[in-house]
Amino acid sequence: MAPSFDEGNALFDFVVQKGNGVKGLVDNGIKMVPQRYIQPPKERIDKKITNSNDQLLFEAIDLSKLHGPEHDQVVGAISMAAESLGFFQVVNHGVTLELLESLKASAHNFFAQPPMKKAIYLKGVSPSPLVKYGTSFVPEKEMALEWKDYVSMIYTNDDEAHAQWPPQCKDVALEYLKSSTKLVRELLEILFGNLGVTLDEAKFESLTGLKMVNMNFYPSCPNPELTVGVGRHSDMGTLTVLLQDGIGGLYVKLEEDHVEEGKDDWIGIPPIPGALVINVGDTMQILSNGRYKSAEHRVRTTSSESRISVPLFATPKPSEKIGPLPQLVESDGVAHYKEVLFGDYMQNFFGKAHEGKKSLHFAHNDSA
Fold it and tell me: Which residues of the chain fall below pLDDT 50?
């Protein structure tokens, strides 16, 4: 008989503090989702609701065409996606398919370990400040927990990554980071070029000086209709590069002018073999003075099989100040956001549960 985790603090202690995670619940044979994971009805994801233009909106952009006669069309497609949806998919991006498959396999290998092997990286006890293993987002502050376990790896330099990242995934995660950083550079040059801004080495470093690779694990769920893998939020950084597996479950919120009458304003991002998902972060929205949009997104769970996703977050360092680029403020005639220290923005972002794009309010210029 599967144990009950609905009494007192037993679930929180088992899942969060002892590091068993959501996978520990599933491995214990639970038949129903514990009460602490049941989301309010307005936060649940109805996967039966779809829009007819899902595939059209997320048709992959072929980056190999940047080096041919269709260069301008590709640049236009990338810029338009960043201005409207904040999400797009790319293929022929320079990250090999073999690496992407190895990345998924290494993530499964990490989460397949016994709980005690993963729990050594729990917050507060991890032997490295660069590695954190956990579950949900900020479980201490969430009314309903997210159905997700994760390991987060911060990059400082190659030597520290090799020495401190988990051995099950460090080599492939580092290779993914390096390949993805080249992709981020290429995309940022396009996006800033579209704004009339040239990106030199110092500016690129200031926008992407802090890099993190996360491996997210969403165990199969007995009641997926009651839960979420990740609640609705936007990313705090500059750009995110995401590998999702073939199961799907990532949803993005559409701007009002993209919503079909009678349809939901959330649509699924269909998995495309070999593609990477790119999304604009809050930092990019602030820098562009609102021209580029950081999209609200979330993840549903599934009852069929466990899901893996691997994002690379390219963000400014905590010591960097971010604000609208002066050239854009001059042309727009107003700064829609104030200049803030990115470390303060991070602290605000991680200091509360996911709640859409509310974190962006921290930088709003109320006098604009």
Answer: 1-2, 50-52, 262
